[in-house]
Amino acid sequence: MHLAVRLCGYFFNLFEPLFRVGQRWLGLSRLGWLFVGPNLLVFGLFTFLPILINLVYATTGGVKLMPLERPFTGVENFAILLECRDYFDIQSCRKDVFWRAIFNTIRFSLIQVVLMVGLSLLTALVLNRKIIGRGFWRGVFFYPVLLSPVVVALIWKWLLQSQGVFNAGLVAAGASPVDWLLDAGWAFFWTVFVSIWAHMGFYTLILLAGLQAIPKDMYEAAQLDAASPWRTLRRITLPLLMPNLIVVLVLALIRAVQIFDEVFVLTGGGPGSATTFIVQFIYQTGFAEQIHLYGLAAAASLLLALGLIALTLAQLRLTRASTAGQKAR
Amino acid sequence: MLTSISKTGIAAAAAALMGLSLTAQAAEIRVMCYQDGVECDVTAAQAKRFEAANPGTKVVIDVVPYKTIVEQLPVQLAAGQGPDIARVTDLGGLSKYYLDVSAHVKDRAYWEANFGATLPWLRPTATDKGIYGFMSQLTMTGPYVNKTLFEQAKVALPGPKATWDEWVEAARKVSKATQTPAALAWDRSGHRFAGPAISYGAKIFDAKGDLVLDDGYKTTVNKFVAWHKDGAMLKEVWAGSGGSSYADSIGEFKNGRVAMVLSGSWQINRLQKDIGNAFDWVAVPNPCGPVACSGIPGGAAWVALKTSKSPKEVGMFLDFIASEANYAEFTGKTENIPAHAGLAKKGVPYPGATPAARAALASFSAGVASLSPVAYQFQGYKFNRAMMLPTVARVTQAIVGEMSSDEAMTKIGADMADAVKQAQK
Question: By the number of CB atoms within 10 A of the CB, which of A105, B34, B260, B348 ranks highest?
């Protein structure tokens, strides 16, 4: 360890003359740019530049891939996406599938996030207790997180398809098979269920870490005061777990809005457009259809970005409010 | 000693340089290939023979799923990337990326004599005279029937001029008697859908040559949706996906879940291999509508691509696999309908084909005569996918109850107009 520190020291000393020269030329206040420069370059190249390119695509039309070959169309792509004769009737919208994808995404996010946070909290509370085989159960709940989303979706597809395990079980029991993935309601239910099954372990882990950080003496004090378990949960556990809960809420919400891979493999967005979410709409419009409408896809992705920015701002606000509340206490 | 080491070093360096120079001279041709049966395997064996005859040229066959050819290859080509040769089905749509290899083929007259009828399908303009590749096979959409199920149900196979309605009724009786999940299924494809639509009177093109949705198309949409709703059609194939993605029905047929499917001649090899003796199957003529008894012609083509850095070798390799002997081997082993005029006249022996496969090939070959001229026109039309893709997406929405058949028709029309407008920009 000592040797490693010394080696690092030697390594950074090699750059000392460079920093001294930089300090002399740039001055101390501007030297910081020298340090963040490489990172800014990478960030600019792989984050800002794609955003700019996306903006170019969103404001140009046609099916050509090279930006310079595409005719400028201004806000036409946004207008096409948002054009509706009657905003209360999706069918009247020019790109009705875009609107269906938005409504599906909102519905999915609301249901999935509430269930995800609730179930993760419940699981974390149980796993925080001294139960038999606690390590095993923690492993069981975390294991699906380690699987690739495609693997998760394929496993569930094999279980749920018409000739899958679930229907085989129903038929063996004398019941009729169910269209798990061909009925719009069931298909939506399974997309929610599978996504929760796959990701709950991750959020449970965050909440478990939060629970373990709560000082034990607070619970001992509550016990001395004869506080009921429910009161202890409401007055001690939940308030002190709030920062973790907010992180879980925001992460789950952002991930829910971005849902794509599992659903794409599990249902393909069907039946019809019952499980088509916004990211799949973007992918289909830009790449999967044989007439590639890159401009329309780029415009939809910018609208999605706006939605995600709004969610992030809400997260910042919530975090600030939570921190302020804690300080006040 | 030092001199000896220096000499050894110089010799080694010279050998390394020679090696480098040889490597630089060697050309590598990458071929993107999808296969319905053994198309890429046969081509890979031919590539080995080509390499032996042309030392220094390496041919790498990259076997990919059909979806890659349809979805990823166009994006790669638009970005200036891509293989040297590909096996494609969107013949006209990708023609701007094709490489003219006419300067590198040995005998242009041979190409004109044997592939003359289909070479224009690959040319970007009507006046162009280039050689961009050749059709690896001709295909035709058409139905397959599970003969064993019909026999078990004691239902006679409808005759060669039977209508779609008669076939659906017959298959429905079979399904009921044999307790299969559904009577029939069609591939989830606008291309497959177009055959029955033309039979029901869809004109596809208006007087100006633009795409049009008419009563014939509407009748087909209505019937197809109704067949799903009354349980005649297997729901899984069309309702099992969203958007316009392709799904074939042949898997359901092989598993004996339907009595009849609408697919195409390219499945013969797969059916022969996978079904074996499990049940008897036959290819039957395309059922009729009031106007025609048509399927849709098509096929796959080997095309040279502008992204190639070895145009000469690409031309040589295409010339090699297009030779009569190699083409005959490919057609015989893959059990396809030849696009080579000379071979079509002589007849292909199909050495590995079972009697069922031979009968199916004969049925499809005979069916070429009943193809509607509109079917040929539609297959060669540059923007045919502007009609095919919305058909798949919107008809599926009607099947699952998101909209009515009439609304689906309106939406197909709107999507089609949008897609053509964008493609023309």
Answer: B260
